[in-house]
Structure formats: structure tokens, C-alpha cells
Design goal:
two-stranded antiparallel ribbon; nine-stranded mixed β-sheet; alpha/beta; 293 residues; 13 strands
Length: 293
């Protein structure tokens, strides 16, 4: 093994280990599945053994992979920590926290974040970046972001997590506002309008139905924003789900969604790296956001 290992191949392997799927890993990493599979095949050739077994039940690490994948995780975490710390030392304004947020994150969490960084032992500036889930995850992995606030819809096992908010889910549709709650099983009979699978809302919706083994009937088109979801649902094109705080007005026709009589909720979490030089401040910020729920 005299050749150097390819960094992209290591990251591809890490993504497959996290998602347990080659197709999901390729989407999360923003590459085609053949490119990801080829990168892992080259890595396995260099390492001298297969990292993963594929079967109809999914992707699982081989015995060889079980030993190697934790080492790959640690190696990549160390490389990312070097990059992040070098950037922090060389860029002006080192007393800042770079926070990435999903478009699903409500304004109340943004306001609480600004208050939280001001209350740290060493007050810092907060720099916000709103982006889709893939870019937020990559920004955290590469050290461009210190912490991200996202819906808790996909595991990131190498990172620290803290649930910071829980919100009820409502169903938008032509029914008048204030109508009695709709059961998830009954909602399954409706046609749902989805948004691009970038902010986490579509992942939550599909995962919710799959967890109850219910079919999800979808409108053949796709809305570009939450406002469009409201408009199209009022036109009768279908129903839609969203957190209640994302409604533009309480007058938008909506119904609470329940499952067995219990309110269906979406959780939001703060995610950061334990290897970060700001780990103590990030943990305190996440704890403060959680306590303010």
C-alpha cells in the first residue's frame, strides 16, 4: 500500500455507512450513484477487501468494513478539524459562530440563537447561512459551519445532537380552518403536494407514512415553496403537510394531524462536532436552545 488513499473515496464510504444505502449516499453527497460506487470500488481495491455487502435487505458492513469504517470516520474527523481550525486562525473575525439553518427552522429559533451567542462566557457574533440539508451537512463536515439547525429526519452518527424544538404538524387543504383533527390513516386517502427533497419536509412526510406502512399518494407536480403549498392546497390540487409555525397566517385552512389521537410532531435538532475548537460554546448554545423550548 504505497499509494495514497483517495479522500473522496473515504468520504463516499463514510456516507454509505451513515445512510446504509448507495443511492441515499449519492444523493446526500451530491454525486451520481455510479460515481460513488466506482469511488468505493477503487478504495476497496486499495485497501484489499470489501467494505460493504449489498442484499435485498440493504447495505451492511462486512467484517473487514466493521474494522475499517470507524478508522475512516476518525481520520476524516481529524482532517476536517485541521481545516476548520486553520480557517478560524487565518480568517478575520475569529470570535464568530457560523450557523447553518434549514428553511424549516422558525424565526423564534433564530432569535433564540442570537440571544444565546450573546450570553456565552465570551460573547460571539452569529453568522447565519440558510441552505438545503445536503449543503448544511457538507458544510459541517468540511468545517465551513460550526453548528447546524435541521429537522431530525436523517442520522448523523458521528456528531453531537440536541433536540431543540418540537412542533405540531398540520395538514393544509380545502377544509375550513378549525376543523377537527385528521387521523394519519385518513390523511393517507388524500393526495399530497410535496416540495423538493432539500429542506427535510418531504423526507419527514415520506418517512412518517412509511413508518406506519401507509401508502403516500402524491400530486404529480412539485411546489417550490411553503407559500406555494398553501396556494395549491387552497386551489384543491391536493393536501400538504408543514409545521404549524410555517403557516403564513392562522387563517390558512389547516387541520391538526394526529396518529391514534396523539398530535403528530416534527423534531428539530442542533448538530455539531465534538472535535470543534468551539465545542464547549456550541454545547452550551444547544443546551440553551433546548431549555427555551
Amino acid at each position: 500500500m504505497t499509494d495514497r488513499l483517495n479522500l473522496e473515496g473515504l468520504r463516499y464510504a463514510q456516507a454509505v455507512a451513515e445512510t446504509k444505502s448507495f443511492s441515499a449516499a449519492s444523493r446526500a453527497y451530491g454525486v451520481t450513484q455510479p460515481a460513488l460506487s466506482n469511488g468505493i470500488a477503487k478504495l476497496e481495491e486499495r485497501l484489499g477487501g470489501k467494505l460493504f455487502d449489498r442484499s435485498p435487505r440493504g447495505v451492511t458492513p462486512t467484517v473487514f468494513g466493521t474494522r475499517l469504517l470507524p478508522l475512516i470516520d476518525r481520520a476524516l474527523a481529524s482532517l476536517d478539524a485541521v481545516t476548520a481550525e486553520a480557517r478560524r486562525l487565518t480568517e478575520p473575525g475569529g470570535q464568530k459562530i457560523c450557523m447553518g439553518v434549514s428553511p424549516l427552522i422558525g424565526a423564534h429559533l433564530i432569535a433564540a440563537s442570537f440571544n444565546g451567542v450573546r450570553d456565552l462566557p465570551v460573547p460571539r457574533d452569529l453568522v447565519l447561512r440558510e441552505a438545503n440539508m445536503r449543503d448544511l451537512r457538507e458544510g459541517l463536515r468540511h468545517g465551513d459551519l460550526d453548528i447546524i439547525l435541521i429537522p431530525a429526519v436523517q442520522a448523523m452518527p458521528r456528531y453531537e445532537h440536541r433536540v431543540i424544538d418540537v412542533e405540531p404538524i398540520v395538514v393544509l387543504g380545502p377544509a375550513p380552518a378549525g376543523q377537527a383533527p385528521v387521523e394519519l390513516e385518513e390523511a393517507g386517502k388524500e393526495q399530497f403536494i410535496l416540495v423538493p427533497d432539500a429542506c427535510g419536509l418531504t423526507t419527514f412526510t415520506t418517512g412518517l407514512f412509511a413508518s406506519r406502512e401507509l401508502p403516500l399518494r402524491t400530486y404529480p407536480g412539485e411546489a417550490a415553496s411553503y407559500r406555494v403549498l398553501e396556494d395549491w392546497s387552497q386551489l384543491g390540487l391536493g393536501s400538504a403537510m408543514m409545521p404549524r409555525s410555517r403557516l403564513t397566517s392562522p387563517d390558512v385552512p389547516h387541520r391538526p394531524l394526529v396518529d391514534g389521537g396523539r398530535e403528530v410532531q416534527i423534531s428539530f435538532e442542533a448538530v455539531w462536532s465534538a472535535e470543534s475548537a468551539l465545542e464547549a460554546d456550541l454545547r452550551r448554545l444547544a443546551d440553551d436552545l433546548a431549555a427555551a423550548r
